[in-house]
TrEMBL record:
It comes from the Bacteria. Signal peptide: none annotated. This is MFS transporter. Coiled coil: none annotated. It is a multi-pass membrane protein. InterPro entries: MFS (IPR011701), MFS_trans_sf (IPR036259), MFS_Transporter (IPR051788). It is found in: Membrane. It comes from Actinoallomurus vinaceus.
Length: 433
């Protein structure tokens, strides 16, 4: 993080000032990550065929990618502390684009495996940096907005899945499909710009110096419930995202052009759910949202497991996305508030649960799919989703992020007070986060 010194900051407009710009950039990075993940997920059957891999080998490659993402998360934490989240976001998204190109044009299996590892490292760095930035922006807004960022992620995933389906229908080889995705991700990375935000301390008194604190046992104990919810949410997410294309193609006899539609439908469901999640949290509270979401997700996964044909599976995947939509942003927002002055430290630890969930979901469902039991792979997460109903009570304080507005910040609809002229030689410090 860097600091700049200047005169008293002028009043900021939420819609047009640096805060709004920071929110737009953060949403753009979420979108870039959504495109990149969708590109890998929806091209898995084509890459498998192109490289001559078995289903088990593709499952192993997915697991390696996830392990690399876990390592990238902690590497990203160190980079965020050194250079700030904005610089890390830009570099990691560009690296993800380069990795997609490397997968597309890899001359053999070894080179493709190395490209997948590079992609995983970039993905982990994006995770910790963009969620750190999102938590900071949400604290400045003083209300729940994190779901809107994840809605951008899902909307971009829908667009990327439809892009895969469209160009596959035109007969494009997988090399050109992944190149198109890589170009889109790179273009989004080029729009990332830093925005200077005023310092905003939480009501608990955390300061920027707290970023180097070691998390105590009490914080770890409070983090576990959110981690469990995140773990199960990513078991569900990875089972649908990583293998729904293969499920439709191999089990339900969908064509390569139709197979990505389940992924697109799943992300469309998450877009709808996340677009309304912040409003629902403010209206009925996070406990009710978590309970309703888990029940819907369980029912949708059961429907996905029992789907008689691929159109039914597409509808069930959409409902599954609608059910799981709010879980991840609520976990991230609630965990980030455990240490408002050092969100990157908490979120890097929370990502451990994220990647364990991806490993369990992608690995188990891929293994079952390789033996022809994809339906069981969707039935088991339905049971896990029901367990999350018991964890909803831990979200009771998750609706309103505590924040102390920074000097010069004007909430929406308020009138900016006149600022006294600063004394000679006085300064106001601003942080680049």
């Amino acid at each position: 993080m860097t600091a700049s010194v200047g005169a008293t900051a002028p009043p900021r407009s939420v819609r047009s000032g640096p805060l709004a710009g920071a929110r737009r950039v953060t949403a753009t990075v979420f979108a870039a990550q959504g495109v990149a993940v969708a590109a890998v997920s929806t091209t898995a059957p084509a890459v498998e065929s192109h490289l001559g891999l078995s289903s088990l080998a593709m499952t192993a490659l997915t697991i390696v990618l996830t392990l690399a993402a876990g390592a990238g998360s902690f590497a990203g934490l160190a980079a965020v502390r050194r250079s700030g989240p904005v610089a890390v976001m830009r570099a990691a998204v560009l690296t993800a684009a380069a990795a997609l190109l490397s997968v597309a044009w890899a001359p053999g299996r070894l080179a493709a495996s190395a490209a997948y590892v590079l992609f995983g490292l970039a993905l982990g760095a994006i995770d910790v940096s963009v969620n750190t930035r999102a938590a900071t922006v949400e604290r400045h807004y003083g209300r729940s907005i994190l779901s809107s960022f994840y809605a951008a992620w899902s909307a971009a995933g829908v667009a990327a899945a439809l892009l895969t389906a469209g160009v596959s229908r035109l007969g494009w080889p997988v090399e050109y499909v992944l190149t198109a995705h890589a170009a889109l991700v790179a273009l989004l990375a080029l729009t990332v710009r830093p925005h200077v935000l005023p310092p905003a301390l939480s009501s608990s008194g955390d300061s920027p110096a707290a970023a180097q604190e070691v998390l105590g046992r009490r914080v770890w104990a409070r983090l576990v419930p959110f981690g469990v919810v995140l773990l199960v949410a990513y078991v569900v997410d990875s089972t649908v995202s990583a293998w729904s294309t293969a499920y439709l193609h191999q089990t339900l006899a969908a064509s390569l052009a139709a197979a990505p539609l389940a992924y697109a439908a799943y992300q469309a469901g998450t877009v709808t759910g996340r677009a309304s999640a912040d409003r629902m949290v403010r209206r009925v509270g996070p406990v009710a949202v978590v309970r309703g979401a888990t029940l819907l997700a369980a029912a949708a996964l059961a429907g996905l497991a029992a789907a008689p044909s691929w159109p039914y599976a597409v509808v069930a995947a959409c409902c599954a996305g609608l059910g799981t939509a709010a879980l991840t942003p609520l976990c991230v927002a609630s965990a980030g508030r455990l240490r408002p002055g050092a969100p990157e430290t908490v979120l890097a630890r929370l990502n451990v649960f994220n990647y364990v969930g991806v490993l369990v979901g992608a690995g188990a469902s891929g293994g079952l799919g390789a033996t022809g039991h994809f339906r069981i792979a969707y039935a088991v997460p339905a049971v896990l989703a029901l367990i999350l109903v018991t964890t909803a009570r831990f979200f009771q304080h998750g609706g309103k992020p505590p924040a102390v507005p920074a000097p010069g910040y004007v909430p929406p609809g308020a009138t900016a007070p006149r600022s006294p002229r600063p004394l000679a030689g006085s300064t106001v410090t601003q942080l680049q986060v």
